[in-house]
Amino acid sequence: MGIPSAQRVFPGLFVLYVTASIPAVYAASSEFRGMVHIGAATDHSRSDELTSRLNKLPLGAEQPSARVAMRFDAVISDFAIHANADIDSHRTSLADLHETWLGWHPIPSGPWRVRARAGAFFPVSSFEVGYDQIGWGAERTVSGSAINSWIAEEIRILGAELTTQWRGALVGSPHEFTTRLGLFGGNDPAGTQIGWRGWHVGNRTTGLFQNLRIPDLPVYSADGPFAKQTHTIQLFREIDGRPDYYTSAGYAYDGRVELEILHYDNRADPLIIKDGQYSWQTRFDHAAVRLHLDQAWMLQAQVIRGKTVMGGHAIDAEFSTWYVLTSRQFNAGTATLRHDRFKVIDHDGLFNDSNAEDGYAWALPWAQPLSVSLLVLVEAQQVTSERPARTWLQDSARQVEKSLIFEVRWAL
Asked: Which CATH number is correct for 6-13+42-411, 2.60.40.1510, 2.160.20.80, 2.40.160.10, 3.30.565.10?
């Protein structure tokens, strides 16, 4: 039988979630929250070229963005129900689900805590994203870093996760330790975007039922070496029937220092193609650190290094990226500065399919709260990148993209 794909599992899982939610609304504590995002950017960055070409910035003045993010949480005894969805003007299907899971959260009697969940969810890895907020997205910036833009687009856990945690605060210790182990399926195409489009800096999250278009490259044209590949990818699909895993560990000290490491392996068979979708063997290691220097200053950084292989090393790409972010809170608002570096090294040398890339990005946002429920952000961006594959699309290999982004967030 193998592991079923998201397209087969999640219609039934969503019905199960809705059915379970009905008693949750009446028999337990529940909460529904929403957030409206309205944004626009200068016309140097054009949203259509993120998918059809090889640009790095997704927002554009020609197509202002409007998104309504929604989150539902309910607790029934030791069990929790969670769902994240949104309505996005930039998505063809308009509405989609990002996460939905059922959790087991027994009340601990001491410093040790054990939790489990099953469904669809993001791996806990990022300090840039608030996991308690509405939807997956950067807290202090409009755009996500290259790391978290990629995770939002290509990575999702369709399976189960077990978390153990020792909370020193309950016994007078400033230390906290956390470990996680996840088993999953349905993420075999992960790596497609890194290989054929590269990194980007944006704020889009792929829905569980969404198909993504890939750039119009000759390598999968009718006479190309990967002619069987469709021009859209189904990221949350199981192709080879093999179980995947990830594991992570975290440490925190007195609310001032936070560390997180993670290893991900989708264990995909790179020789399999099914219904126009190739299986990409993608593995990566991730590390993150956050320092609260004082009441106003915060410093954080993340790094990813990994490899993706497809077609028996017909595509063999080593990828890496890191960012450093510093943020200062003032009485009037919050100023943030982020610097990204990203790179893809092509080890296969396949003609008409250079996966190599090298670049860096700057983001300088200002967040201004107007009320408890209304936040205005203005962000200046610049991304400089070189990707030889652009020449196959009659573009310059080296590009400098600049954008000034405006976004309003209104909590419902």
From this structure: 2.40.160.10
